[in-house]
Amino acid sequence: MYIACAYENLLQVLDEADRLLDLDFGSTIDEILKVIPKERTTYLFSATMTTKVSKLQRASLSNPVRVEVSSKWVSWKT
Fold it and tell me: What is the edge-to-edge ordering of all strands in the sheet holding 9-14?
């Protein structure tokens, strides 16, 4: 997790959120979320959308935008 503050704008990045939660950092993330301002920009990245990641999304994001990549491979003949 990365947290930066510049010109009173707080930026939080949760990269590999699924891995952080798999490694039992959930309680640590919860503690950090309790002390940083709610007015912030948060980016949450995850390879999978597990139940734990969905709960983290609901707890840490407001008005989220979800970008999803299809799990199906497409081949083109040349």
Answer: 2-6, 9-14, 41-44
